[in-house]
Specification:
alpha/beta; Rossmann fold; 2 domains; six-stranded antiparallel β-sheet; 11 strands; elongated; disordered C terminus
């Protein structure tokens, strides 16, 4: 049996690293982009290997211009980089790798605070929120055990289905924060501690798998307990549920949500809502 050196590290080829860490960028000492994660490249099409990083990102105030030495000084700390041409903010940990001769930024995409309420997706979500609140002006009273409604982040792309699903969840006793895009869902999950996150498979910019990965990355960075995440689709591609579970999704549903007990396959250490099921009868799903 060949001898294995326990001190020898494991190295990944660039393609495998990009797939394993879909939200990362590697920066050379001359501030050129060496590589980036597959999901980040899809989110920002203009970002290509060899690009001059300061053309695409800047440090938010009070930091000065991007410089390799100043970024190295931030190694091991939480850092934010704002995109220069979009509302995307990357937030994560900067790591200096002298062996690789580069900086590796493991990050989660969010929207910058100044743009957080100004995108079409955010506007559509706010419109759904207003309608749901108006329809639930006199919610039914619940018992003492259920005094606090379940706080749910619901991400569905189509506005009509988002509206129908949010109304059905509210009638079931939940408090719903709707999102119509993946990046918006990631941003909302970073700002609010939800009891449950529901993600439709097909979302703009980031799909359910990528949103789940971003949420889990942010939780690890903040050392938060993982929130239950359920991904669902009525038309699942082959391997969808496997990809979801590998990304940290708690439960994957192929087909309608109606009649599912979302806690049945969830964590045993769930918050005190294990009694709660989804008595949905809406045809919007």
């Amino acid at each position: 049996m060949p001898h294995t050196d326990p001190t020898r590290g494991v190295s990944l080829p660039p393609s495998a690293f990009a797939a394993a860490f879909p939200f990362h960028i590697a920066i050379d000492p001359d501030l050129r982009l060496r590589q980036a994660g597959s999901s980040l490249l899809r989110l920002m099409p203009g970002l290509v290997p060899g690009a001059f990083v300061p053309d695409h990102f800047r440090l938010p105030p009070p930091h000065g211009p991007l410089a390799f030495d100043s970024l190295c000084a931030l190694s091991g700390t939480v850092v934010a980089l704002d995109a220069t041409s979009t509302s995307v903010r990357l937030r994560g940990q900067m790591l200096h790798s002298p062996e690789q001769g580069c900086l590796i930024f493991l990050c989660t995409p969010q929207e910058t605070e100044c743009a957080a309420g100004e995108t079409p997706d955010a506007a559509a979500s706010l419109a759904v929120t207003a309608e749901v609140r108006a329809s639930d002006a006199n919610p039914p009273s619940r018992g003492e055990e259920t005094a606090r409604p379940l706080l749910v982040l619901l991400a569905v792309h189509d506005p009509e289905r988002l509206r129908g699903a949010a109304l059905a969840l509210e009638r079931a006793g939940a408090q719903v924060h709707p999102a119509s895009a993946g990046l918006l869902a990631v941003d909302m999950a970073a700002q609010t501690r939800y009891d449950l996150v529901l993600l439709e498979q097909q979302l703009p910019a980031l799909d359910a798998v990528e949103v789940a990965l971003a949420i889990r990355n942010a939780e690890r960075l903040a050392e938060d307990e993982p929130v239950p995440v359920v991904a669902f689709t009525a038309d699942a591609a082959e391997g969808f549920c496997e990809r979801c579970l590998a990304a940290g999704v708690t439960h994957c549903i192929s087909g309608s949500l109606a009649g599912h007990d979302l806690w049945a396959a969830g964590p045993t250490a769930a918050p005190p809502f294990s009694w709660w099921t989804m008595p949905l009868r809406s045809g919007s799903w």
